[in-house]
Design a protein that fits this description.
The chain has 227 residues and is α/β, with parallel strands linked by helices. The chain folds into two domains: 120 residues, Rossmann fold (3-Layer(aba) Sandwich), CATH 3.40.50.2300; 95 residues, Winged helix-like DNA-binding domain superfamily/Winged helix DNA-binding domain (Arc Repressor Mutant, subunit A). The protein contains eight helices and eleven strands. The strands form three sheets. The protein has a five-stranded parallel beta sheet with strand order 2-1-3-4-5, with helices on both faces. A four-stranded antiparallel beta sheet has the order 6-7-8-9, with helices on one face. Strands 10-11 form a two-stranded antiparallel sheet. α2 packs parallel to α3 and α6 packs across α8. The mean pLDDT is 87.
């Protein structure tokens, strides 16, 4: 699942990005409200985590414009401001939860998972399937032909990306930015290694093969049409 984190304090932002990524989520991190609003309106996020005191547009204004655009994505506010009036203002604007800084990451992760479960009745899918492969996005589990497949957090994020973009050729640079949040370095083989390990788990002992290499272009996940 994909989360947008808008936090202008570098240490906190990196802390959130690393922790959520290690928990298996795809995370985009931005440092000002204007960029956060543009991303929230352009991308399909499963959750927004917004600092209140952002430069450009504050978190309240980002939320107000997101809701005015008709989007019902869950929103969690982070702030050092613990006044009741501030919490009430955020909730009245349409926030789903409010966490005061400093906070324990375990508590934030629990709230994130609760919001994602609560929002699972929306149009965002909580299960992705192709052929006999089933992926539970909330429980972070995968199985094929009824057999449980153990995946690392990065392997799960890679599989989720391929499933969400089924039938689309994904370049190494896109995979690097979406799963590892880094610019692709042609001297590294991290993408090839990750694809090889994922393919060994979900394809080697099963038919049909789902992960395909498109030479010179990238990778795609798809299954042949039944005959």
């Amino acid at each position: 699942m994909k989360i947008l984190v808008a936090e202008d304090e570098p240490k906190t932002g990196l802390y959130l990005q690393q922790g959520l990524s290690e928990a298996g989520f795809v995370v985009d991190r931005l440092t000002n409200g204007s960029d956060a609003l543009q991303a929230a309106l352009a991308e399909a996020y499963d959750l927004l985590i917004l600092d209140v005191m952002l430069p450009g547009l504050d978190g309240w204004e980002v939320l107000r414009r997101v809701r005015a655009n008709g989007q019902h994505v869950p929103v969690l506010f982070l702030t050092a401001r613990d006044g009741v009036e501030d919490r009430v203002k955020g909730l009245e604007l349409g926030a789903d939860d409010y966490l005061i800084k400093p906070f324990a990451f375990s508590e934030l992760l629990a709230r994130v998972r609760t919001l994602l479960r609560r929002g699972s009745n929306s149009t965002a899918p909580t299960y992705l399937t192709i052929a006999d492969l089933q992926v539970d996005l909330l429980k972070r589990r995968a199985s094929r032909a009824g057999q449980r497949i153990e995946l690392t957090a990065k392997e799960f994020a890679l599989l989720e990306l391929l499933l969400r973009r089924r039938g689309e050729v994904l370049s190494k640079s896109l995979i690097a930015s979406q799963v590892w949040d880094m610019n692709f370095d042609s001297d590294t083989n991290v993408i090839e290694v990750a694809i090889r390990r994922l393919r060994a788990k979900i394809d080697d002992n099963f038919e049909p093969k789902l992960i395909h290499t498109i030479r010179g272009m990238g990778y795609l996940l798809d299954a042949p049409e039944p005959t």
